Amino acid sequence: xxxxxxxxxxxxxxxxxxxxxxxxxxxxxxxxxxxxxxxxxxxxxxxxxxxxxxxxxxxxxxxxxxxxxxxxxxxxxxxxxxxxxxxxxxxxxxxxxxxxxxxxxxxxxxxxxxxxxxxxxxxxxxxxxxxxxxxxxxxxxxxxxxxxxxxxxxxxxxxxxxxxxxxxxxxxxxxxxxxxxxxxxxxxxxxxxxxxxxxxxxxxxxxxxxxxxxxxxxxxxxxxxxxxxxxxxxxxxxxxxxxxxxxxxxxxxxxxxxxxxxxxxxxxxxxxxxxxxxxxxxxxxxxxxxxxxxxxxxxxxxxxxxxxxxxxxxxxxxxxxxxxxxxxxxxxxxxxxxxxxxxxxxxxxxxxxxxxxxxxxxxxxxxxxxxx
Length: 372
What we know:
The protein is α+β, with helices and mostly antiparallel strands. It has 2 domains: 2-73; 146-371, Endonuclease/exonuclease/phosphatase (Deoxyribonuclease I, Chain A, 4-Layer Sandwich). It has 15 helices and 12 strands. It has helices at residues 2-17, 31-36, 43-55, 58-71, 77-80, 84-102, 108-127, 131-138, 161-170, 183-191, 194-197, 265-274, 276-283, 303-310, 316-320, and strands spanning 146-153, 175-181, 200-203, 214-219, 225-227, 240-244, 250-256, 289-295, 314-315, 340-344, 349-356, 365-371. The protein has a 6-stranded mixed beta sheet. A 6-stranded mixed beta sheet has the order 5-6-7-8-10-9. Helix 1 runs parallel beside helix 4 (58-71), helix 3 (43-55) runs antiparallel to helix 4 and helix 12 packs parallel to helix 14. The radius of gyration is 24 Å and the shape is elongated. InterPro entries: Endo/exonu/phosph_ase_sf, Endo/exonuclease/phosphatase. This is Endonuclease/exonuclease/phosphatase family protein. Keywords: Endonuclease, Exonuclease, Hydrolase, Membrane, Nuclease, Signal, Transmembrane, Transmembrane helix. One of its GO terms (molecular function) is endonuclease activity. Residues 103-140 are annotated as: Disordered.
């Protein structure tokens, strides 16, 4: 029994370690599903820990506690806003600081020379600045705009249109992103008054290759630009709407739905990672801010999703750090996964995030309040 429990723990740790494979390496069946289930493994080490206490096997108990912590490694960020990558960086920085302090006295003269060189280099660089460089440094939003955004997977167009419109009204939603739409649901939404609350919209093209339906995005104010698909990924179109924030800034909202792994693991991974181009576009000054909303069929446990965040996005749920907001499946309170997200590029701050039920669909809706 003793060795059997150790084997169970080792299997649990090996399973959890799948979340640490390189981005893109998770694009092989059944890795997306195994990785998605990692945060649900904690009952196994908990049961082993209880058995170890009964058996007075304290080493086994410590191993069970360690295994349980490993299964929650990426989920801890939902409470602490501190990822495993942050921890690794902090450890490296601590060692570097220690090494630097030990050699500080011996390198003071060299540091002084380096400082003089750096001062000279900065002076030279400044002399080459253009007017555009100066303006770029001064571009900070003058407004303190606060918006509530909402996203929902509509399950092949079956979601309750009346409840969607009711949520938009009750929560004062300014931007609504919907996935797995059908023309019939769009008409039903309008009959229930969505076009009066959010009169401007952009829909993706309705294609046979769509994964469950097309995507759409609605907004309260008149946009300055819109696209049927802001980025090319192997999935349904990613419709986007751009509005001005002030005279120097604009913000683009996009509704996205990468394919689920069952529709092809390589397309699943490529679709998630490909959304990073929207963050890259902000770096190219195509627009200053970007917000991506949708069912991304992934969580921070998936390396492909973490690569998307590394492209320049912040996740609302991780940023607020008040606990996970589960979004799938709707019909049970446990086990649930986090598949739906609101992501934003730097310059946008999230102040709240909430998941809630809408009838007749398999996902929970997700809303977030952001300020610019």
